[in-house]
Amino acid sequence: MGLGANLWKILSHYSQFYFVSIASVLGTGILGLPVTLSESGFRPFILSFVICYFVQVLTIFFFTEVLQKAYYRNIEQLQENDKDNAPIHLEKHELHTYGSDYDLSSKQGGTHPIIFHFCQAKSQQFVFSQTIEYEKSSIPTIILYVLFILLTLLSFVWIYISYSDISKLKRKRLATVFFYSLVLTKFRDHERSKMVTQTLKRLLSIGLFILNNDPSNVPLMTNDDDDDDGDNVTTSVTNTKYYIKSSYKADIIKRCLPNLHSLGELLLPCFLRQVFTGTVLLALLCILISYALAGSQAFTALFNIPYIKMIPIFCWTWTFVVVFLHSFIQPIISILTFLKGTLFTATVIVTLLVGLKIQNPVKSDYSAIGDSFLMSTIALGGLMNVMPMMFAKLKQTREEIIGFNVSVFLGLTTCVILNILWCWSILAVVPQSSTCLSTNINDSVHIVFNLMNDSQIHGQCIQSPSLKKSALNGEISTVPLTQILENGEFSYFQYVSFIVQLFIITSISVSFMTMGSALHHTIKGVVDSYWNPTLEAETSLRKYGSIFEYITVRRIAQWIASLLIFSIVFGIAMSNPKGFKLILEQAASLFQNVEVGLFLSIMIYKVSTREYNHYILPFQLPSWSHYLKGIIPVYFLFAVFYDIYHIVRTYLK
Predict the structure, then answer these.
(1) Where does the chain cross the membrane (predicted)?
(2) Which in 27, 115, 240, 568 has the greatest CB count within 10 A?
C-alpha cells in the first residue's frame, strides 16, 4: 500500500475512531471538572487526573483484547451450532475475519462463499419476475428505456459519492448488476408499467441502502429466462437460475460482533449478566441526563429561552436523531467533533489569554482531592461504552487493530491535554468561591442572567459568580465564565463569551449523539438476544412493499425500546433541573466505576484463561502487560468505595 493510500485510510477510516473517542470523552470533563475544583484547586486535580489517564490507557488496550476474543468465540459457537440448518451465504470480504490469521473463509477454500448453518427460516424474494399484464404505450418504449438507464446510472453515481468504501461495491460488481438488469433483460412488448414499477422499487432500495449504509438492501437482479419452471428454485441454491436474496445474509455475522450486552452474556457468570446490562444502561442514562441538563443550560444562555421549556426540546430532538438516523450519525459525529475540537481549541486559547490578564489567585488543598478524583473518572470515562460500536467497523487484521488502538489512545490523550488547559483557564478567570457584595451597591448591580430564576440575594448580599456557587446550583462551568465576561469590568471580552457558548452547544450535542448511540447500540443488543429468527421470518413485512426491507418488526421493537429508555432520561431531567453535578459526581461516577472496576475486570480475567488462550489474535498484547491488569480493578473499585462514602457523607450533613 502506497503512501497516498495509507494517508487516505488514516483520514477516512481511523480518523472516525479518533473523533468518536474525543466526542465520548470530552463532554463531561469540560462541563463538570472545573466546578469540582472550588475546594481542591489545580495541583491536586493534576495528580488525580494523570493517574486516571494512565489507568484509562490500560483499559483501552485490555478491552480491545476482550472484544477480539469475544468476537472469535461467537464465530466459533456459530460454526458449532448444528441445530439449525438453513445455509447463509456470505462473500469472503464481508467477513470481519477476512485477511486475519484467524480467517474463517480460508477453511472453505477457493473463491466460494462460506456457508453457516444458523437460521431456522429463510425467506426468498425474486426480483424482476415476468408479468403477463400489458399496457399500450403512447411513448416509444426505446425513449423510456434510455431515460431509465440514465436514471439508474445517475443513481449509481449517487451511491459512488455517498458510500465511502467503494471497493466493496466493486467486488460485488454492483455497476454490472444495475447495467445488465436494465439493458439486457428481455421485455415483452408494451411492458412499460412493469418497467416503471420495478425501476421505482430499485431506486427505493437504493435510497434505503444509502440510509442504512448496508449493501444487503440493494436488490439482486439477473436476466430473465424463457424457462418459467420454478419447481427447482427452492430445492437448489447453487444451481438456481435466479439469485435468491436471503433475509439474513451478512446480518447473522454482524450479530456475532460483540456489544456490551452480548459481552455480559458470554463472559460473566449467570447471576451477574443482568446486573451488568442494568449497570451499563444506568451509567449511560446518568451521563445522558447530565448532557440533557447541560445542553438545555447552554441553549438557554445563548437564546434566552426559559430553561424548563428548553429541556424537552433538547432531549427529544436529539433522541429522534439517535434512534431513527443511527446509521447516518457516525460520519456526521466525526465532522462535528472536528468542528467541536477546533472551537474548543480556540476557546481554550482565548480563555487562557483572558486568564493571563485577570490572574485569579488559586488555592490548592490536597485534603479536598476527592471531588476532582471522582469527576476525573467520569471526565476520562465513557470509552468502554462506545468501543464495541467502533469495533464493529474493523476488519480483523493486525494493521486495523493497531490503528484502532492508536486512534482511541490519541483521542484520549487529546482530551487530557485539552481538559488540563481548560481547567487552568477557568481557574484563572472564575474565582473558586463567591464574595459578598455590600448592600449599598446592591441597587447599582444589574444581574443580566440568572439561569434558574432564583434570587441571587442571600441574607443581605449578592453572591458573585464562582465555581462553588455553580456547584451548589447545579450549573455547568461555563455559566459563571460567561457571567463574568459579559458584565462589569471585563465586558470587552463578550466575544469570548459567545465563542464559549457556541462551543458548548456543539460539544454537548455531539456528546449526546455519541453516548446516545452507545445506549441505542446496547438496547439493540438486548432486543436481538431475545429475538427468535423464526419469529422474524413469520412476522416479515416484506410482502407489503420494498420499504419493509428496512422497516422490520425487529427494528420497530428496537425503536420502541430505545424511545422508552430515552423517555426516562427526559423524565429525570425535568424532575431535577438542578441535578447536573449531583448526577455526574454521584450516580454516573458510581455506575461507570462499577462497570469498569468489577465487570470489565472479570471479563479481562475470563479471556486470559485457558479457554480463550488458543485464539490467534491479529494483535495480541505482550505477555509482560498482563502484570498490569490488576491495576484496573484496584483503582476503580477504590473509586466505587470512595464514591459510596462520599454519597453517605453528603446526605448525612
Answers:
(1) 17-37, 44-63, 142-163, 275-294, 306-325, 332-353, 373-392, 404-427, 492-514, 556-575, 626-648
(2) 27
pLDDT in tens, 353-367: 877 877 778 888 888
| Residues forming a β-bridge with 86 | 119
Distance CA 201, CA 621 (A): 49
Say if residues 338 and 407 touch (Cβ distance below 8 Å). Answer: no
3-state secondary structure of 457: strand
Residues of the domain holding 322: 12-74+258-359+368-436+463-610+624-652
Name the residue with higher pLDDT: 81 or 199: 81
Residue 350 reports pLDDT greater than 90: no
Assess if residue 233 is contained within a domain: no
- C-alpha distances (whole Å) from 35 to each of 246, 374, 468, 533, 589 are 55, 12, 7, 50, 15
Are 223 and 266 within one domain? no
Q: Would you state the pLDDT for residue 6?
A: 58
Distance CA 494, CA 301 (A): 13
| One domain for residues 550 and 602 | yes
Query: Which residue in 639, 638, 620 sits closest to 64, CA to CA?
Result: 620
Question: How many whole angstroms separate alpha carbon 53 and alpha carbon 18?
Answer: 16
Q: How many residues does the chain have?
A: 653
Nearest of 413, 596, 392, 378 to residue 21 by alpha carbon: 413
Most confident of 172-176, 299-303, 424-428: 424-428
Q: Taking a C-beta distance cutoff of 8 angstroms, is the pair 35, 515 a contact? A: no
Give every CB contact of residue 544 below 8 A, 6+ residues apart in sequence. Answer: none
